[in-house]
């Protein structure tokens, strides 16, 4: 077995420690008695919180923050590039380095890992698993890509269980060897890295093959054709299925009311009980089935599952109601893939069936927008009006930026019969919305970038009116 580097080092330094995953990783490293330092270029409440826990914080990032004498291991995220001064200094000093997923993988070797993967639904599903396990007294540690309301994006528990959101980008999730793997769905995404859907499926098959131990199990969505293809290649005794139409775990008699969901849960045709879920949407009922299947596999009692689901209040930036001013309802969501957008808009329309729905969508990455342009253009059928700012520029090359733009997307949306408008800057959008909204309207900002600022600014403007 390959030696775990965390066994032989004490002093760790995290480049980009203010990020969602990296800040949580710092807490888990402190818990196993590591001396932790970290850097970022912007001082934030997250950094102040870590400093209060004993982490030495450097701001901004510079070469002097790293040296062979005071640093034994450097961990960095995918947001850090080789031209970063601390990265370059680490190479010069020949200090061992790990990426964020490699470091998480090292931590998981010492624990009973639960890794949640899929093109969509990772954050909500892993958050539901955490909620159930905590409510049932299982005290898990967790590292997530979003913030559970009232709990945060990470936590240090008292048990061996570690719940991790497992991202497929650059095959990062292959660093994990969990006891339980959940696969929610597989669609085309990250096509700046993967060749095609078959390449993506091969990566997920490798991920599924990484489960370890006698109880190593893959919990998978049987409604998804691509996931089912993978499951057929695994040993049946190592799989548990769920779905709204197919699978061992299913839901019937589903009802939505006032932002909640109710349904009867069945396993292999036998009713296990009735469930009340603290969030709405058919996709969230499906996510909850994944969490239920995982929890029952771990032996969690049914009452603990019910309490964990009913007490779950959602995740920040996942169909989140931000406020209501002057009769205008303002919501926000992190969705940045066509399927996610369609599911979120469908959920919002069911919550507000009589309202005009105005959507502000900020595309995330030029490459994703280009590869999925047709799908994005078709994803706004439930919207009455769509406003699109400039595409959020991250990870793309300058050449990629020249191949597509927000105006092209707006034209495609219009051709599909939706009213769409291109306004490049957030300030313009906020002012436009302020002028056109009226009581009864719902405004939804959606995207993985900082488009939620439009929602916050609009609420502030309406409060002044």
What is the topology?
Blueprint: E1 11-15, H1 20-31, E2 35-39, H2 45-52, E3 56-58, E4 73-76, H3 85-93, E5 97-99, H4 100-108, E6 112-117, H5 122-135, E7 141-148, E8 152-155, E9 161-165, E10 180-183, H6 197-208, E11 217-221, H7 225-231, E12 239-242, E13 249-257, E14 260-267, E15 270-277, H8 282-297, H9 302-310, E16 320-325, E17 328-333, H10 338-351, E18 357-361, H11 366-371, H12 373-378, E19 385-388, H13 398-403, H14 406-415, E20 419-422, H15 426-436, E21 442-446, H16 452-464
Parallel strand pairs: 1-2, 1-4, 2-3, 4-5, 6-9, 6-10, 7-9, 10-11, 11-12, 17-21, 18-19, 18-21, 19-20
Antiparallel strand pairs: 7-8, 13-14, 14-15, 16-17
Can you give me a brief rundown of this structure?
The chain is an alpha/beta fold and 465 residues long.
For the record, the CATH architecture of the largest domain stands as 3-Layer(aba) Sandwich
* Parts with pLDDT < 50 across at least 5 consecutive residues: none
Arithmetic mean of pLDDT:
93
Number of beta-strand segments: 21
Overall SS class: alpha/beta
Give a quick account of the main beta sheet: strands, pairing sense, barrel closure: 7 strands, mixed
Helix content: 25-40%
Termini Cα gap = 65 Å
Integer-rounded radius of gyration? 22 Å
Q: Kindly report the name of the CATH homologous superfamily of the largest domain.
A: Mur-like, catalytic domain
CATH top level of the largest domain is Alpha Beta
Instruction: State which percent range the strand residues make up.
Output: 15-25%
- The CATH topology name of the largest domain reads UDP-N-acetylmuramoyl-L-alanine:D-glutamate ligase
Shape assignment = globular
């Amino acid at each position: 077995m390959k030696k775990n580097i965390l066994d032989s080092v004490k002093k760790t330094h995290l480049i980009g420690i203010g990020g969602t995953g990296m800040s949580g990783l710092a807490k888990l490293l402190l818990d196993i008695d590591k001396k932790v330092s970290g850097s970022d270029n912007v001082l934030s409440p997250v950094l102040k919180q870590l400093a209060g826990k004993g982490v030495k914080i450097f701001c901004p990032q510079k070469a002097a923050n790293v040296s062979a004498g005071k640093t034994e291991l450097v961990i960095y995220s995918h947001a850090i590039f080789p031209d970063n001064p601390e990265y370059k200094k680490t190479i010069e000093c020949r200090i061992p380095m790990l990426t964020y997923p490699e470091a998480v993988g090292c931590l998981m070797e010492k624990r009973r890992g639960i890794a949640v993967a899929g093109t969509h639904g990772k954050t909500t599903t892993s958050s539901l698993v955490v909620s159930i396990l905590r409510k049932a007294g299982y005290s898990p540690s967790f590292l997530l890509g979003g913030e559970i309301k009232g709990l945060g994006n990470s936590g240090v528990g008292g048990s061996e269980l570690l719940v991790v959101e497992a991202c497929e980008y650059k095959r990062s999730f292959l660093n994990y060897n969990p006891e339980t793997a959940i696969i929610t769905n597989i669609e085309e995404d990250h096509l700046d890295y993967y060749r095609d859907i078959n390449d993506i499926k091969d990566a997920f098959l490798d991920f599924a093959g990484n489960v370890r131990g006698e109880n190593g199990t893959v919990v998978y969505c049987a409604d998804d054709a691509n996931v089912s293809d993978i499951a057929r290649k695994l040993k049946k005794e190592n799989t548990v299925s769920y779905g709204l139409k197919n699978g061992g775990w299913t839901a019937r008699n589903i009802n939505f009311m006032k932002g909640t969901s109710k349904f009867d849960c069945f396993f292999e045709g036998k009713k296990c009980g009735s469930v009340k879920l603290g969030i709405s949407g058919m996709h969230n009922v499906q996510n909850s089935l994944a969490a239920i299947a995982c929890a029952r596999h771990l032996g969690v009692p049914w009452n603990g599952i019910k309490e964990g689901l009913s007490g779950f209040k959602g995740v920040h930036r996942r169909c989140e109601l931000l406020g209501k001013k002057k009769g205008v309802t303002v919501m926000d969501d992190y969705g940045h893939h066509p399927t996610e957008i369609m599911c979120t808009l469908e959920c919002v329309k069911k919550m507000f069936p009589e309202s005009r729905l105005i959507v502000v969508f900020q595309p995330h990455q030029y490459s994703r927008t280009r590869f999925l342009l047709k799908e994005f253009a078709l994803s706004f059928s439930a919207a009455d009006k769509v406003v699109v700012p400039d595409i959020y520029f991250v990870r793309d090359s300058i050449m990629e930026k020249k191949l597509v733009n927000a105006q092209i997307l707006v034209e495609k949306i219009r051709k599909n019969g939706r009213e769409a408008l291109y306004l490049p800057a957030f300030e313009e959008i906020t002012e436009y919305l302020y002028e056109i909204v009226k009581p009864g309207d719902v405004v939804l900002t959606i995207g993985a970038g900082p488009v939620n600022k439009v929602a916050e600014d609009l609420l502030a403007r309406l409060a002044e009116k």
